[in-house]
């Protein structure tokens, strides 16, 4: 049995009046026509005869190779025997009782492993650095005092620059405001080193 879309040159079996995708029908003589229709303004369009052998683009069937289509869709599905991810399971109503039980076991094992890792990690003690805050000036060598004084001068210079910005009306971050507040402390530490600054 042929349809108008597959063989437009031969009339369909008697009694079929379905139009093709382009709207082409067969009349009583077996000719292909586009039936008359009503325009939006109310006037009537004439019936148009379609010349024999013409197939409009809407009626041309697109060849689809099944092998090529399956090759293109190969990455969209799951491989045989694979289960959908947890989110997909929840969306489809969950899994079986056994899969839920296994999921709980996996979660418990992950928590246990995380706790063991936390226990194994030693707590790191802060490393002492040779600044005026960690060592008393009396315990420092001259070289350590110079190094500490250099670091304190740098911090003091930065704090004073930030103070000037603040006085000009610029907005400062909370960390920068803390540095501005510590200017007096930095000056006191530098004086405690006794290097004549």
Automatic annotation (TrEMBL):
Residues 1-20 have a biased composition (Low complexity). InterPro entries: PYM1, WIBG_mago-bd, WIBG_N_sf. It comes from the Eukaryota. GO terms for cellular component: cytoplasm; exon-exon junction complex. Residues 30-56 form the WIBG Mago-binding domain. Residues 1-172 are annotated as: Disordered. SMART domains: Mago-bind. One of its GO terms (biological process) is exon-exon junction complex disassembly. Residues 42-64, 110-127, 135-149, 158-172 have a biased composition (Basic and acidic residues). This is WIBG Mago-binding domain-containing protein. It comes from Ascobolus immersus RN42.
